[in-house]
Amino acid sequence: DEQEVLMHLADLVIDAYVADSALLRARAAGAGAAALHAATATAVVHEAAGRVEVSARQALAALAEGDTLRVHLAALRRLLKLTPANLVAVRRQIADAAVAEGAYPFA
């Protein structure tokens, strides 16, 4: 059981790092690329949040049960309240930029 919990915790840390890196890169982007970097950060953070929730739920289920599990899951729901973004539009914006560049738009 402990290896599976550690795997989920490692996944949580990786996704937190990915989201943080995307946000920092978006903040550092120049004025011309700021909108595209912001769109990419939005997509990355929302996707990472979904993976974090799944990993956290699985880790909690391995560590607790019954009322304790329900309390932990309720706390997780409060912690991960995320207003959904229109990721279809965001991904289209990123794809349109790649097509317009004819190459990877972040080079």
Topology:
Blueprint: H1 2-28, H2 34-63, H3 66-79, H4 87-101
Helix pairs in contact: 1-2, 2-3, 2-4
Structure description:
About 80% of the residues lie in helices and about 0% in strands. It is elongated. The model has no long low-confidence stretch (mean pLDDT about 95).
What descriptive keywords fit this protein?
107 residues
Helix content: over 70%
Bin the strand percentage: under 5%
How many beta-strand elements?
A: 0
Number of helices: 4
Backbone CA Rg: 17 Å
Separation, N- and C-terminal Cα atoms = 43 Å
So what's the overall shape?
Answer: elongated
Biggest sheet: strands, sense, closure? none
> What oligomeric arrangement do these chains adopt?
single chain
Along the chain, the helix and strand elements come as HHHH
Mean pLDDT: 93
SS-based structural class?
mainly alpha
Could you name the ranges where pLDDT drops below 50 across 5 or more consecutive residues?
A: none
Short note summarizing the structure:
The protein is mainly alpha-helical and 107 residues long.
